[in-house]
Amino acid sequence: MHEHHDHNHDHSHDELKEAVERLKTSGIRITPQRHAVLEFLIHAQTHPTADDIYKALEGKFPNMSVATVYNNLRVFREIGLVKELTYGDASSRFDYNTSKHYHVICESCGKIVDFHYPSLDEVEALAETVTGFDVSHHRMEIYGTCPDCKTKH
Ligand SMILES: [Zn+2]
Ligand SMILES: [Zn+2]
């Protein structure tokens, strides 16, 4: 796991710059709050909820509300910068959309960890052949118990 984090750390500065560029080219105004939310998402790697981000940034921006955070996330989602992950519960989690990856989800604490694996394109091709659908995407999740929860038992 540490290897993964270090890897992301090395690139996070460039990723932030790239993301800011993308906002600019999409004609989206970059407010200090918007910049902070984006920076948090890129560094977090934890798939935070809007509430998590709000709690992490409220000290820095006393006038910010959870709604502001959510609105910013919605803007990012609309231009494809972040992915909203909904798992049927009240609070969506947000994922900075760097590259295609799958998720491993802890059934005890709900933690979501990135799992890099070549995209299963052949499944999509097969589904198209078998069903005649135009396949747009697929979603695969792996479930289990995370290392932290394993040691708690
Ligand atoms: Zn867990
Ligand atoms: Zn992810």
From TrEMBL:
Q: Tell me one Pfam family matched here.
A: FUR
Q: Where in the cell is it found?
A: Cytoplasm
Annotated cofactor note: Binds 1 zinc ion per subunit.
Q: Which InterPro entries does this chain map to? A: FUR (IPR002481), Fur_C (IPR043135), WH-like_DNA-bd_sf (IPR036388), WH_DNA-bd_sf (IPR036390)
**BP terms from Gene Ontology:** negative regulation of DNA-templated transcription; regulation of secondary metabolite biosynthetic process
Signal peptide positions on this chain: none
Keyword Iron listed? The answer is yes
Which keywords does this chain's UniProt record carry? Cytoplasm, DNA-binding, Iron, Manganese, Metal-binding, Repressor, Transcription, Transcription regulation, Zinc
GO MF entry, a single one: DNA-binding transcription factor activity
What does this protein need as cofactor?
Zn(2+); Mn(2+); Fe(2+)
Q: Which residues bind Zn(2+)?
A: C106, C109, C146, C149
GO-annotated cellular components = cytoplasm
The entry sums up its family as follows:
Belongs to the Fur family.
Query: What protein name does the entry list?
Result: Fur family peroxide stress response transcriptional regulator
Species assigned in the record: Streptohalobacillus salinus
Q: What is the lineage of its organism?
A: Bacteria, Bacillati, Bacillota, Bacilli, Bacillales
